[in-house]
Amino acid sequence: MSDPSEREFPPQQQERPGETGAMTPEPMDEMRAYRGAGRLEGRRALVTGGDSGIGRAVAIAFAKEGADVAVAYLSEHDDARHTCALVEAEGRRAIAIAGDLSTEEGCVEAVRRTVSELGGLDVLVNNIAYQNPVDSLEEITSEQWDTTFRTNVYSYFWTTKAALAHIPDGGAIVNTSSINGLRGNKGLIDYAATKGAINALTYSLAQALQERGIRVNAVAPGPVWTPLIPSTMPEDAVESFGQDVPMQRAAQPDEIAPSFVFFAAGELSSYYSGEVLAPIGGETLPG
Question: Is the pLDDT of residue 286 over 80?
Fold first, then answer.
C-alpha cells in the first residue's frame, strides 16, 4: 500500500494474534518517508507489541531518531524479526523478546532483558492490546473480561513498575490508549473500559513521577489498519473499517508513530506530562 487515504479493505480474517504478511493490503508501518533528527540519540527504548502495526512504526521511528530498541511481543516471530531488521538497518541495536505480557513474569522478563542487552532503559512504550468484539454485555465472559484487563491494563502496570527501577530521572513513558477510551464503544465494552483505565493510569503516573522528571503521556488513536483488525473483527466489519470517522478512512501506523516520537523526545515535549493525544481522523469530542 502506498496511499494512506485507502478507504476500503477486502473482506478478510486471520487467527489471533494476526500477522502483517497475511493482510491485504499490508499496512504502511515501516516509516519509509520519515526522516529522523537525532532526537533520541543514545536512548534505549522498550516497545511492547513492537512486532507489527503501531508498535513496529514506533520502533522504526525511534531508531531513525537514534534509539536502540527492544521489541516485546507474544508469538509473531516473523513480524518481530522483520521489525528488528528494519531497526538494525538504521544502524541501531534491536532485540526481540517473545513472551506473554499478560503475566507479571513476562513483563518483568521483558524489562530485564532490555536492560541487560541494551545496557539500560530510557523510554518505555506500553502498547500491547487484546480485543474481542461482542453484540451485548451478556456475551462477555469473566474469562474474556480478565484476559482483556490483564493484557491491556495489568501489563502496563507490571511493565511500568519493573521499568521504574531503571528509567533515569528525565525519562519518558508513553501509553497506547484509544478513541474507545474517550467515548466508549458498545461492541468493545471491555476493551473500551481498559482504554479508559489507561487514560486514568497515565494521569496518575504523571503526577506520581513528576518529582523524578519522568514524563508520562498517552496516544489515543482512532481506527488504525493493523493485524489486530482482521484477527479480531468479522469480515464485513473489516471491509468498512474506519469509514465512520470524518476522514472516512482508517489511519496507517506510519501516521500515528510521530505522536510517540513527540512524547518520547524531551526536545519536543518537555512541558507535556499527563496528556492524551488523540489522532482520530477529524472526530471531535465534547469536554
Answer: no
